[in-house]
């Protein structure tokens, strides 16, 4: 079966157990969470997150705990060499996030590599490598997955070559993997409709064994726009057919796929989108019920 889920919230009172319940309500067998607000460092103590209850729920539904992905907060920017305090916060908090992910029992932590702000790409990449070398240890069980980026502003990681260089410059490169985002690579200029070519390029440059997670998102932008604006499945410039081919690709049956498509009003589209992807059957009107509710609310 395809390993497919979505971003799920984590909030009081059920915390992680509530995240698993939300994923199950979507018909998912995987999920992605933030361990707290993605824009700041506020975090509940790990022992308050109802981890054991979440693990019991996963076990009851035959979902491995490894199918629960954690995304690092956006405030972590290892590439900033202009503001020392920003870099130091990134290093300190990334280390804490890795420890939290290990305590939860998850295996993969998704990380945006960083932005070089007002310096240069090369300086930013060197700073990211330095930060990863400060953070990662040989004892870590968590794999930090560098996410492919759209190339917006001064983002680093919008080319496979950049990701590969970051990985292989690190001391503990075995602790690093990759999360490929379909919207991001499309916006960076890759042709998702020719995904076999993309996989061949990824394998040649990075190695398919590094690919641990795929974010499945359509894009509101034309290919190469370098803007990063997610769209619902079939409602963007990538299209449902191309995204379904990614989800069902025979070389990627073991890779965890996570939807990050936009909510429609106050409604998550994930149950509908997961069903369409599992059935490999696009219904252009499937999301209309949510749009109608948004209009009438």
Could you explain how this protein is built, in words?
The protein is an alpha/beta fold and 297 residues long. 38% of the residues lie in helices and 14% in strands. It has an 8-stranded parallel barrel, surrounded by 5 helices. Strands 8-9 form a two-stranded antiparallel sheet. α3 crosses α4 (121-135) and α4 (121-135) packs across α5. The model has no long low-confidence stretch (mean pLDDT 96).
Concise structural overview:
The protein is an alpha/beta fold and 297 residues long. The protein contains 10 helices and 10 strands.
Topology:
Blueprint: E1 4-7, H1 15-25, E2 30-33, H2 51-60, E3 68-71, H3 84-104, E4 108-111, H4 121-135, E5 143-147, H5 160-169, E6 176-181, H6 182-188, H7 195-205, E7 211-216, E8 218-219, E9 230-231, H8 240-247, E10 256-259, H9 270-279, H10 288-296
Parallel strand pairs: 1-2, 1-10, 2-3, 3-4, 4-5, 5-6, 6-7, 7-10
Antiparallel strand pairs: 8-9
